[in-house]
Amino acid sequence: MRTHRARGRPRWRLVAAAGAVGLLTAGVTALAMPYAFADTLLSDNFEDGNSTGWSTSGGSWSVTTDGSRVYRQSGQSSDARTLTGTAGWTDYAVQARVKPTGYNGTDRHVGVIARAQSSSNYYALVVTGSGGVQIVKRAGSAPTTLASGSAAVPVNTWATLRLEAAGSSLRGYVNGGLVVRASDSGFPAGRAGLVASYASGSFDDVEVATVSGTPPTGEPTGGPTLPPTGPPLDPGAPPIGFASVNALGQNGTTGGAGGPTVTVSTATDLLTAIGQSGPLNIRVNGMIALPGPMHDVTSDKTIVGVGANSGITGGGLNIGLPASDVTSPPANAVHNVVIRNLNFRDTVDDAINVQMFSHHVWIDHNDLSAGYDGLIDIKRGSSYVTVSWNHTHHHTKNMLLGHDDGNAAQDTGYLKVTYHHNWFDRTPQRNPRVRFGDPVHVFNNYFVYNTDVGVACQLNSGCVVEGNYFEDVEVPWSISYSGSRGRLVARNNVLAGTSEPGDSGGSVTEPSTYYPYTVDDPNGIRSTVMAGSGTGRLAF
Fold this sequence. Notes:
- The protein is mainly beta and 540 residues long.
- The protein has a domain at 40-210: Jelly Rolls, CATH 2.60.120.560.
- Strands 3-2-47-44-41-38-35-32-29-26-23 form an eleven-stranded mixed beta sheet, covered by helices on one side. Strands 21-22-25-28-31-34-37-40-43-46 form a ten-stranded parallel beta sheet, with helices on one face.
């Protein structure tokens, strides 16, 4: 489906406050001041089955199916480009999911185009047959390289490419990371597009959005921002939130504490370790490709990545027994699991799935993107879970809490989850989407450019949403997103870029009746979360 819009309404920054102590009843007050950020100019996911609005030059372009509908360039014997949009676009970012399927030589490339004045005059961010990343400028018959970086995208692997053109600044991102930048003022404006130069590839989820010229220090650029770095944090602090609560025979969440430590670097060793009985600390060294879909993790495990670049691709982790319709917790429910400092990429189902009355799970300081289904889904009676300091991006269906409208018998009284200090980075929906969970505590998170809804609280769930920073979120929170209504208390949240926070109401038990916590000043949450979330922040 292709949409093309330019919204001219003013942007505002608001602080919303609501609620009292004990059992809460929601209300909203607001204070507004000017604020600026991105507007979407065009998006196309090709689900309408056509390429209306795109003009091609070279190659063989068609809409076909690759899991979902995609725009594909087949064959590797031509210099293929396709353009869309208007010639007057100036400062903007073009982003797309890109999957190279073959190269006719190591110097060939696929990627995204910005400021195209014609099919032979443009900037592009490309991945190459030799495994590199480049910003190129084409002014005539052949492109010239303006800057090179390293972020290999193997053949038949999806990656999200984003090229920002703002003033004379060009910035290239791969899977959310800033990997290459250049400066050139040759093309001040032009259309957006895709390129497959003597290469074949598939393209999906194209989006074009405005960005400012040269962003002020600390201000958003309209795309993933390279977060500030600092010394690694101490990993020894215990969890905050529901994972810290003594309940169901488990005192807090300690994972593999007291057990031996193993380091794994192959799929075989990792699968053996997570399936082993008894306490175990598992250090994942490097990116490990697992077969899909998901693999069972047993009780009393800590799984951590070594450094900033370790993790899992392909398969995901399942914490829980096989799904069934039983309504009472089994004696052997999986419990006491810690997952930290891991990158999850290109999972063919969920990246992390918690189900079947699993309890005391801590999911912390991970980087998750580009999965097929949910990034972190919690369902079927699971409870006492904390999801903290994670960076989720380049993904649509972010996090579910409660999987089905008809699952009240299993879920009522469970699904007690805390979400804090997470970076929900351009994840359109399910941030989280909640069914039956009560209470669900969402505090001190940074939401940015969620184009559908932030927190969706439905089906008699109860949510407390406090101290968060919402930036350019279409609907920050809602109790009427879909299905029957939930209950939601919103207080002390910063709203940057919307004057309509969403609907709330009803009473919810205070999270402080379960655990102590401190809410940081929401005005500083954007910078705090960007600096501290994701991998590489802990001294593993």
